[in-house]
C-alpha cells in the first residue's frame, strides 16, 4: 500500500489495481476447494442426484447380482464431476489471474 501511495495512487486505486488482484490470486485455491465442497454438499445434489443414482445402482445390482460395478460407476460419476470442476473451472481461473 505504501509503494502505491508513494507512486501517487489514491487508496481506492491501490486497492483496485494492486491489493485486490494479489489477494484474489492467493485465495483462489481455497475458493476452488469450497466451490467443490458446496457442489457435493448442495441440497440439489442431496435431494435429486444422490437418491436417483443410488436407486439406479441398487436396481442394477439386484438385477445382475453384482454389487461393486454399479456402485463404482456411481462413485465415478461424482469423481468426474469434481475433477471437471477442479481442472477446468478452478485452473482456468488460476491461469487467468496468475501473475504474468
From TrEMBL:
TM regions (residue ranges): 71-90
ABC transmembrane type-1 domain location: 1-89
Highest taxon in the source lineage: Bacteria
Pfam family, one: BPD_transp_1
Main location (coarse class): membrane
UniProt xrefs under PROSITE patterns: ABC_TM1
Record-given protein name: ABC transporter permease subunit
Amino acid at each position: 500500500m505504501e509503494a502505491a501511495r508513494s507512486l501517487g495512487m489514491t487508496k481506492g486505486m491501490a486497492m483496485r489495481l494492486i491489493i485486490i488482484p494479489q489477494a484474489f490470486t492467493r485465495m483462489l485455491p481455497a475458493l476452488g476447494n469450497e466451490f467443490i465442497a458446496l457442489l457435493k454438499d448442495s441440497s440439489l445434489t442431496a435431494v435429486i442426484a444422490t437418491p436417483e443414482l443410488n436407486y439406479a445402482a441398487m436396481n442394477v445390482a439386484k438385477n445382475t447380482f453384482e454389487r461393486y460395478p454399479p456402485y463404482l460407476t456411481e462413485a465415478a460419476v461424482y469423481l468426474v464431476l469434481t475433477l471437471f470442476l477442479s481442472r477446468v473451472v478452478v485452473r482456468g481461473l488460476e491461469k487467468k489471474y496468475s501473475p504474468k
